[in-house]
Amino acid sequence: MTGQHAGEPIGIIAGGGQFPLLFIEAARAAGRQVFVAAHRSETDESVADAADRACWVKLGQLGKIISFFKEHGVSETVFLGTITKTRIFRDVLPDLKGLTLWNKIDSRQDDAILRAVADALEKEQIRVLESTLFLRHLLFPKGVLTRKKPSAGQRRDIEFGWRNARSIGELDIGQCVVVRDCSVMAVEAIEGTDAAILRGGALAREQAVVVKLRKPRQDFRFDLPATGVGTITSMRQVRAAVLAVEAGQSLLFDRDQMIDAADAAGIVVVGVEERADGTLDY
Fold this sequence. Notes:
Blueprint: E1 9-14, H1 19-29, E2 33-39, H2 45-50, E3 53-57, H3 62-71, E4 76-80, H4 96-104, H5 110-123, E5 127-128, E6 143-144, H6 152-170, E7 176-180, E8 183-187, H7 193-204, E9 209-212, E10 226-227, H8 229-237, E11 242-246, E12 251-252, H9 255-265, E13 268-274, E14 280-281
Parallel strand pairs: 1-2, 1-4, 2-3, 4-5, 9-11, 10-12, 11-13
Antiparallel strand pairs: 6-13, 7-8, 7-9, 13-14
Helix pairs in contact: 7-8, 8-9
């Protein structure tokens, strides 16, 4: 199957977090050489150290990434890890190819930028693969993961939050909403999930319900919703009560540690699926 050929090089366009490092380990176990385009001020040094070869780039240096991949025979790549989205207003330093692409993009929203970059790479015969290649076991499972289960009122908040999260996803605004008593406390935008949790949780005072979904037209190749121990840490700070995540469409990092932290804080963690008729399945 294309994208899984043992011995062939594979590229990573890496941001922050542990996802790139986990992918390197899995790709190497599958017999692949790994070449990383690492972003300065975002990617951890350990990612570059673990790669067969790494190239450090700044945001917007698309031409440098393409040249690096072609130099090492890379014809397949993945987008992995986080980029601090507010940096697009202060830290973009595009090369000629990056600037040309940037000027062609009508929207500065996540999906529009990433799809444009992916299209540019594929025009250079560098295919962009799903970020979950080799790592599908990290997808969020369905069901209640914690000892504590959601109450009837919290289930109503999950359903209310789900509808609102789906709506903001349709508009490519964000992936997460914070609600309480069927009122929206915060909508995630460019600031990211943790900041939205802290803002919405402070307004709710306590018992906030956090709902995080994949955007309806979101491409599995990039920017899947992700949660982990840090999500629980943010929720604990504002005494939030429930984390509901779309099962099978989101990433879950450090599962055991995350669930232990949630249990210790009395937080409910649940993976939810949406049925064809729009009802939710826990």
